[in-house]
Design goal:
This protein has 298 residues and is α/β, with parallel strands linked by helices. It has a domain of 112 residues: 2-Layer Sandwich (Nucleotidyltransferase, domain 5), CATH 3.30.420.40. It contains eleven helices and ten strands. The strands form two sheets. Strands 3-2-1-4-5 form a five-stranded mixed beta sheet. A five-stranded mixed beta sheet has the order 8-7-6-9-10, with helices on both faces. The protein is globular and about 65 Å long.
């Protein structure tokens, strides 16, 4: 019997999983998105239970893990409910599951503790540094209602705000905007009731997908370009907050929102001091979590 480690990366838009053995990744897949904030309501817990049930059926058809490491967006280290639900779904002992904040796992996939700063832009955004003692320090990541500048939700909201302010002044002017046409195509039409339902009637991860429409129109629409450039400046801001607190270190930019368009990383680079190294990399956090799970098995 070979030992298998299960890694889970649960974000607002998608939950990805991977199984690893000593030789590498042996299976992977994805189910719907979720976040730790859902654990505070009965409906949210039911939704999480459903996501975990789908995940467990995929995982167990590929192999039975001995340990699991899960990175959960919004997880604050308190509360064991998410661990309990995952343990039930996988029929594992809760002690065999390590639940962490998703940004910790992404960090450890990019740096050794103490080395550098990770700026992660997914549905939301955050900058993180794990010091040599293993303590996590952060800037941003306050949630999309408050801030999370430069993340997918922020990009979507900036676009929607711009479109509807212009509609207030000149109804129908959206037809002249490549960005507005792409946004309305994404949500199914130009009627306000559709926008309202899209923004207020579903979870933050689904809203974040609207950033794809903004990015797709950037080459044709100066407003979309401006939003993406401001997104990069917002991501630079959280990096500089950590630089100001803990000194200059290399910066890695990661997360799917950061990959929407080259303008985001370019404008982030422009907003950072020239001497500060910036690298963009795709973090496969579910792979990283699977390796952590495997290596923590004794």
């Amino acid at each position: 019997m070979r030992d298998l480690g299960l890694g889970i990366d649960a974000g607002g838009t998608q939950t990805r999983w991977a199984l690893a053995d000593a030789a590498g990744i042996v299976a992977e897949g994805s189910v719907g998105g979720m976040s730790a904030t859902q654990m505070s309501s009965a409906a949210g817990r039911d939704a999480v239970r459903g996501v975990f049930a789908m995940l467990a059926s995929q995982v167990l058809s590929a192999g039975r893990p001995v340990r699991a490491c899960a990175g959960l967006t919004g997880f604050d280290g308190a509360g064991t409910q998410a661990t309990q639900l995952l343990a039930e779904a996988l029929k594992m002992a809760p002690a065999a599951i390590s639940m962490r904040n998703d940004v910790e796992i992404a960090y450890l996939d990019s740096f050794q503790p103490g080395e550098g700063y990770l700026v992660y832009a997914g549905t939301g955004s955050i900058a993180a540094w794990i010091d040599a003692d293993g303590a996590l320090h952060r800037a941003g990541g306050r949630g999309v209602t408050l801030d999370d500048g430069g993340g997918g939700f922020w990009i979507a909201r900036e676009a929607m705000r711009h479109i509807w302010r212009l509609e207030d002044e000149q109804p129908g002017v959206w037809r002249q905007s490549a960005m507005a046409r792409a946004v309305f195509a994404h949500i199914g039409g130009s009627d306000w009731s559709l926008s309202r339902q899209f923004i207020y009637g579903q979870d933050r991860g689904a809203i974040g997908t609207l950033a794809l429409a903004v990015a797709s129109s950037a080459d044709a629409d100066p407003v979309a370009r401006d939003i993406l450039e401001r997104a990069g400046a917002e991501l630079a801001r959280v990096a500089l907050a950590l630089v100001g607190r803990y000194g200059a270190r290399p910066v890695v930019l990661s997360g799917r929102a950061a990959q929407l368009h080259p303008l985001i990383a370019q404008s982030m680079r422009t907003a950072l001091p020239a001497a500060l190294a910036l690298t963009q990399r795709q973090t496969l956090a579910h792979h990283a979590a699977a390796r952590i799970a495997l290596h923590s098995h004794h």
